[in-house]
Design a protein that fits this description.
With 114 residues, the protein is of the alpha+beta class. It has four helices and four strands; from the N terminus they run H-E-H-E-H-E-E-H. It is 40% helix and 18% strand. It has a four-stranded mixed sheet with strand order 1-2-4-3, sandwiched between helices. It is elongated and about 80 Å long.
């Protein structure tokens, strides 16, 4: 589980305010398919808002801890039935395509470059 500073948490809360819940946890609770969906969503979004359809606050706290442990994320906020988790995106470096050498530049092309 990641640890966030207070400043990071405040910035993430501000960013999450405009988000809509992407994952909804129903009466069945935290199932493997829900965890897979959270994992899939965190691969494309670094900040995720989750709605939990459960009235028990302690159960929602336990779900938040279980989610963060399972997907290696950081808990940002738990307010009401909304959970906000954060995991930085993995940066994938794209390979630079190889350039094919073409014809040599003409005198006119060389003159226009200088």
């Amino acid at each position: 589980m990641l640890n966030l500073t207070v400043a990071q948490r405040l910035e993430l809360k501000a960013r999450a305010h405009a988000l809509n819940p992407v994952v909804i946890i129903g009466n069945a609770g935290l199932t493997p398919s829900v965890l897979n969906e959270i994992e899939r969503s965190l691969k494309s979004h670094d900040l995720l808002k989750i709605r939990v359809m459960n009235n028990d606050r302690e159960a929602r706290d336990a779900m938040m801890q279980e989610i963060c442990a399972a997907v290696a994320a950081a808990p940002v906020q738990h307010i009401g039935k909304i959970l906000i988790v954060y995991r930085p995106l993995e940066i994938q470096i794209a390979k630079v395509p190889k350039r094919h050498k073409g014809k040599p530049l003409t005198k006119k092309q060389l003159a226009s470059k200088s």
